[in-house]
Write a structure and sequence with these properties.
Oligomer: homodimer
Structural class of chain A: alpha/beta
Strand content of chain A: 15-25%
Shape of chain A: globular
Largest sheet of chain A: 7 strands, parallel
Largest interface: A-B, 68 and 69 residues
Strand order of the largest sheet of chain A: 10-9-11-8-7-12-13
Radius of gyration of chain A: 24 Å
Chain lengths: 410, 410
């Protein structure tokens, strides 16, 4: 393992200096190779599907695992789109002349070797490999065991393209030891690995955060809130609430808890109830809520929970401060929205809520690299440092200072 | 400990929203209070000095520990300077309108609760507390045991000023349990602590990096290199080399290894040798170097070492690639310089050397917040993510996205 990572680190020096032109040409060849070897990928995917059936994986997992011709074409298309992105390397972020007449340029550079740990969906393999390659990084990929054959097939195709172009194949690697022990070793090799990105269940992310000596950018759960203020426009409040919960309940930017100002509860709860009934949402309310509408009782535990399902907690609060306090106690720092026409309430909410994305009068469902206009998305960071919220390709770079002198000493 | 950190986290919500005006007024009062209570501080410092004498601390450590009237005035002056800095909170870093007509603003915000672990010099207590307060963060300070009384006296004065202004005293705290176990607990409390900054010896930093589940920004050692290219201006090569090593050998941006292109070794080594002799530098050279000048033999181990003393390793390399390879193998990613008049060599060196600061024709000694023009310095980060190189007050902030909508759903 260590020798493998030593080599990966060496390769990163090479890959970091490739020109944008070379990288884009290779990416387009990768996309073409994916299309050309569509059957090869699908045949290997069939082995994973067969194992999945033997192991009784649930329907949702089987669906995420499945590759069809259309989905393979989607993978190729995603790589081609990544090729069209502006090169994230070599951007001058700042520049100035010091009192000593040194010319300082703060310039974006690749991070180095990035370990990415993810689950089930095989397209993550090609997406992530392409994003890392485009940003001049070496990636070490550790996908889910259930997608083993699919991931190997995809990686083999991409690595062959590297080889055909005279580039080191280990710029894109699967972790050689994909066991738990392999991961445990990987996250301790801070001399050779510069960043770990875990995407997956809560247990995986907690384990990696607690044990990694390599810096980690987490893609953790989203317990997102919407707060309907006393000065909310009722129409917007209802349509945004329905959208935030029901448009796709299984994703991290979906709302889990709706907070409602006590002064508007009586007016807004009955039509909200009706709208949610039409969307088959299971509502769980605090005792005050249940005075207005007939729904289940919410528990303390619910407020902490990312349902990933069409279930919603509802709580009536006495004012904006109580809403912010509730979010601060139970939120996961992902995305929260206030619905209000009151300038001061909005300002206070956006300033005081400590989350990656804070919305005025819009659905939390917009927390997404694509919706933000960042292009292909690495994920949604729940870290506070380096990257926070939707993580685009620029977040796969760091920076260095280039200092141009003329003999200066100090 | 946990209850203490829960309270610190709560306070951070309050402190994060203070206006620049309030923060600057309080900082100026803190500086005045330091001056007013100069005797109080010096009396407590005398207890630490007494303990130091009993425990036979070495002269350098005793000097770092000592507070004089002048040094206390220096602490007050530093706080007043921090008050004059532009508020790092609330800067709009980027902003754009999406296709959905959402107005997205990426805005700098405080990080939250920052734990800072440092050694000996008591002025770090007031500097760090002021920098954290100015940037809207709560700080939990853990200074060296040898400076215990001085640090307590300084913190007490600053906390009284907070109290006089109706602000929570725990915005500036000393870690209640300052034992090893106390630190071990602190770095595991990722729910309440947002960042750990360790400044100190290698063992401390390694221990914290390996064990912290809170993100860490390291201030690690500097094994800095200067490379004299075959196309170097000899005068600049000599004056920069002398400055990089001898102006202050005990700091992290001092040069530890000098690399010299084989084609110029015969010309440049004799005058370099003479100049270093005049500065009492102990030189240790590779076998090729020792063919030109009569100096000690360098060991493999030397190349890895931050001497923090007036000692220098010298190695002759066959070309620029070997120089970059040597730096990549032995360097600590801090600061490296090339001395050359050759455009292509400089470009290659600055692009391929993976360090926080890479210099063309200037001394590595410029790696410093003050010299960079960043104002008061938090330290020099050897991290690659979030902050790299000289760390100014802006690096004590993170960001959030404020998104202004008008009823948008997705």
């Amino acid at each position: 393992m260590q020798q493998f990572l030593v080599e990966a680190k060496k390769t990163s020096r090479h890959i970091s200096t490739l020109s944008g032109e070379v990288k884009n040409r290779v990416l387009n060849e990768m996309a073409d190779a994916i299309i050309e070897h569509c059957d090869y990928i699908i045949n290997h995917n069939e082995k994973d599907m067969e194992n999945g059936r033997v192991n009784n994986l649930d329907a949702a997992l089987m669906d995420r695992l499945l590759l069809t011709g259309e989905r393979v074409m989607g993978m190729a298309k995603a790589i081609k789109e990544i090729a069209t992105l502006k090169d994230p390397v070599g951007r001058t972020l700042e520049g100035w002349i010091t009192e000593d007449e040194l010319n300082i340029q703060k310039v974006s550079v690749p991070i180095g070797v990035i370990g990415i740990i993810y689950e089930s969906r095989p397209n993550v393999t090609s997406d992530t490999a392409a994003l890392c390659f485009k940003s001049g990084n070496v990636c070490v990929l550790k996908g889910g065991k259930e997608a083993e054959h699919s991931n190997k097939a995809i990686a083999t195709i991409l690595r062959n393209v590297l080889d055909n172009n005279g580039l080191p194949q280990n710029a894109i690697s699967l972790l050689p030891d994909s066991s738990r022990e392999g991961v445990a070793k990987l996250i301790k090799e801070d001399k050779y690995v510069d960043l770990i990105i875990p995407r997956g269940g809560e247990a995986l992310i907690k384990y990696i955060s607690k044990n990694s000596s390599v810096p980690v950018i987490k893609h953790d759960k989203g317990v997102c809130h919407t707060y309907i203020d006393k000065d909310a426009n009722h129409e917007k409040a209802i349509s945004i609430s329905i959208n935030a919960k029901c448009s796709r309940p299984g994703v991290c930017n979906a709302m889990e808890t709706l907070l409602i100002h006590k002064d508007v509860a009586a007016y807004i709860l009955p039509p909200l109830h009706e709208a949610f009934m039409q969307n088959d949402t299971e509502l769980r309310g605090c005792s005050n809520t249940r005075e207005y509408i007939d729904i289940h009782c919410v528990s303390e535990n619910d407020y902490d929970t990312e349902y990933l399902a069409n279930i919603l907690s509802i709580k009536i609060v006495k004012d904006l401060d109580e809403a912010i306090g509730h979010i601060s106690k139970y939120g996961s720092g992902h995305s929260e929205a206030i619905i209000s026409e009151n300038y001061s309430s909005i300002t206070k909410f956006l300033n005081e809520v400590d989350s990656a994305c804070v919305y005025a009068n819009a659905s939390t469902r917009f927390t997404d690299g694509g919706a933000f206009g960042l292009g292909a998305e690495v994920g949604i960071s729940t870290n506070k440092l380096h990257s926070r919220g939707p993580m685009g390709i620029n977040d796969l770079t760091t920076f260095k200072f280039k200092i141009y002198g003329n003999g200066q000493i100090r």
